[in-house]
Specification:
CATH class of the largest domain: Alpha Beta
Number of helices: 12
Shape: elongated
Number of strands: 10
Structural class: alpha/beta
Strand content: 5-15%
Strand order of the largest sheet: 3-2-1-8-7-6-5-4
CATH superfamily of the largest domain: Aldolase class I
Radius of gyration: 30 Å
Length: about 325
């Protein structure tokens, strides 16, 4: 990754089973300013069971309540035979292309495509065998934490480090679709970075792009956001995805936030130094003759800033002038 915030456009299911739409989405993500495009590598059979048991029916107030897990993933998955073409298009567009594997076979498949990094999805953070197998490939690991408490995150990080992989980025995430802004808890970003001594970013499911900008100000090094050509296309993830115009605005806002952060230094910029001419300094406010006493009427702290520092005024008042001064002269004190 790079020094600036690494902005990932998540393709997810926003291809709607159409390869041409997937390709156009990648091209639009590049035009919108993304640094990377992320896929998801699974099939319905590698992520769940085709079961009629109640446990496999979605419930709990989600967008997908009442649907079978198997049916949802059968609709949403990105065909593996598309991957090589999508990687090629992304490279042509100047994007980093990588994926979230959901089982070991997906990792093996992605290794054959020379994937540059891996993303562990929030719901897979407890799949320690998958994290261990993936991290052994010694590629950068990005891990979402949407359903994880401290112990879950700690175990995932320790699993990576145990096999010698220390290139770890945690993503603050709220696994709600869409996620309420008041549940973003972005102040956890710097704390997570300190607690686990890793890079930290944001995988965002809130509406709009305020959260990514705030996250940037809190030190996020990665922003991941679902991307769609147009929400009117529909699909499982359309509601909480940014369209082309919105994603472009988000990227612009994040880049401007980066500029505003600058560096933690007291050294003045050129503009700040030039502005010192408008600071206060000591000037002669009335004509003064030799032998006159300096007082608050004839020596004043005023703008501009070319005279003596105002801190000297206390030592000057009550002293006798050794020379004459004209009103408006810079008062110089040695």
């Amino acid at each position: 990754m790079q020094n600036k915030v690494f902005i990932i456009a998540e393709l997810s299911a926003n291809h709607n089973g159409n390869l041409d739409q997937a390709i156009e989405t990648i091209k639009a993500a590049a035009r919108s300013g993304a640094d990377a495009i992320k896929l998801q590598t699974y099939t319905a059979d590698t992520i769940t069971l085709n079961s009629e048991m109640e446990d496999f029916t979605i419930k709990g107030g989600t967008l997908w309540d009442g649907r079978k897990l198997y049916d949802l993933y059968q609709e949403a998955y990105t065909p593996w035979e598309w991957h090589e073409e999508l990687f090629r298009v992304a490279k042509e567009e100047g994007l980093v292309c990588f994926s979230s594997p959901f089982d070991k076979s997906a990792v093996d498949f992605l290794e054959n495509l020379n994937v540059p990094m891996y993303k562990i999805a929030s719901f897979e953070i407890t799949d320690i065998p998958l994290i261990e197998y993936t991290s052994k490939k010694m590629k950068p690991m990005i891990i979402s934490t949407g359903i994880a408490g401290y112990e879950d995150i700690d175990l995932a990080v320790r699993t990576c480090r145990r096999v010698g992989n220390n290139d770890i980025t945690l993503l603050k995430c709220t696994s709600s679709y869409p996620a309420p802004l008041e549940e973003a808890n972005l102040t956890l970003i710097p704390k997570m970075a300190s607690d686990f001594e890793v890079k930290v970013g944001l995988s965002d499911h809130t509406m709009g792009w305020l959260a990514p900008v705030v996250a940037t100000s809190l030190g996020a090094v990665v922003i991941e956001k679902h991307f769609i050509l147009d929400r009117s296309l529909g699909g499982p993830d359309a509601v909480f995805s940014l369209n082309t115009e919105e994603f472009t605005m988000m990227v612009k806002a994040v880049r401007e936030a980066e500029k505003s952060l600058g560096e933690a230094t007291y050294e003045l910029t050129k503009k700040q130094s030039e502005g010192k001419q408008f600071a206060r300094s000591l000037y002669v406010a009335e004509d003064i003759k030799a032998g006159d006493v300096f007082n608050e009427k004839n020596i004043r702290s005023v703008r501009p800033g070319f005279g003596a520092h105002p801190k000297n005024l206390r030592d000057i008042l009550g002293k006798t002038s050794a020379r004459s001064w004209k009103k408006g002269e810079r008062f110089e004190w040695k």
